[in-house]
Amino acid sequence: MSDASYRDAIFSTPLDRVARFSFDEKVVACFPDMIRRSVPGYGQILGMLGLIAARHLRHGAHVYDLGCSLGAAGLALAGTLPPSAFRYTGVDLSPAMVTRAQKTLAAECPDHAMEVHEGDIRTLAYDPAGMIVLNFTLQFLAPEERDAVIDQLFQALEPGGVLVLSEKIKAADEQENAWLVERYHDFKRANGYSDMEISQKRTALENVLVPDTLAGHHERLTRAGFSRAHTWYQFLNFASLIAFKDADALAPQEA
Ligand code: GEK
User: Fold this and answer.
1) pTM for this structure?
2) Ligand 1 pocket, 97 CB below 6 A?
3) Binding site annotation covers 68?
4) Residue 107 within a domain
5) Which residues pair with 63 in a beta bridge?
6) What pLDDT, on the 0 to 100 scale, is given for residue 1?
7) Is 32 inside any structural domain?
8) Which part of the chain is the Methyltransferase domain (predicted)?
């Protein structure tokens, strides 16, 4: 049995002071289980990435997966597209994630061009790309840092390129938000998390994961220059957007 199948029990015992959440060795070991049981729609979103790429990616283009964790988006793309269709670069801040992603991708898709690097998406020198995947990563940056990253991604995208942005969101209306959060906790309970695990994880993520509203995301994408963005997926307080860079926008090197 591979260690990818470890069950997430990080918050299953009472901790006197719950530490801030971090992507360390402990989280990496149970990450596939944790994200599947904690993010509504995670598998469906991954499943759609290949179909979105098949429609929107220029053949042979470069794809970034930012905050790639264990490279799940890369695996999803390689599962749908042939090796000649794209070149993949995964980037993650966590060395433990990067090491595991490199091993997994080398073993699972040896014929595809897949690279994973340790890096900070706030300071990366971006190469041009036809598609950029930000799957539940922007939410971990401080709110005031998010505009600059989305601006950079717009610049890095080739004309005709797409950004897929998946995020935990909050509803602007307080009552609606409370309802979504309560049902989200029901979802986690139904997936085997105890009340204590739910409440301790919530404390650990306070000030680490600060969600924006859907309107906030759309406004940021418009400010960065994207001509169009659609919310193509929502399940409770989790959503995925696709943003399009006009085919006649200036190429990255001319911008
Ligand atoms: C998936 N996309 O499985 N630069 C690079 N990586 C970062 C940064 C940063 N500044 N901040 C956080 N990360 C994945 C899931 S998980 C989402 C993404 C979750 C990384 C962090 O190390 C972690 O691996 C990832 O972003 C967020 O489709 O755990 O809810």
Assistant:
1) 0.90
2) yes
3) yes
4) yes
5) 88, 131
6) 36
7) no
8) 63-161
Which CATH number covers residue 159?
3.40.50.150
The per-residue pLDDT for 3 is 45
73 lines ligand 1 (CB under 6 A): yes
Number of domains present in the structure of the chain: 1
34 CA: nearest ligand 1 atom: 29
Contact by Cβ (8 Å): 129, 157: yes
Mutate to test the pocket of ligand 1, among 93, 137, 153, 166 (most ligand atoms within 8 A of CB): 137
Containing structural domain, residue 92: 42-171+209-247
Give a yes or no: residue 215 inside a domain: yes
**For residue 152, which of 175, 129, 168 has the smallest C-alpha distance?**
129
pLDDT less than 50: residues of the chain: 1-4
Packing angle of the helix pair 143-156, 214-224 (nearest 10 deg): 40
In a domain, 252, yes or no: no
Q: Using the mean position of ligand 1's atoms as its centre, give its distance from the Cα of residue 215 in Å.
A: 22
Residue type, position 86, single letter: F
The pLDDT, as a whole number, for residue 2 is 43
Q: What is the pLDDT of residue 4?
A: 45
The 10s digit of each residue's pLDDT in 119-151 is: 999 999 999 999 999 999 999 999 999 999 999
Amino acid identity of residue 214, one-letter, is L
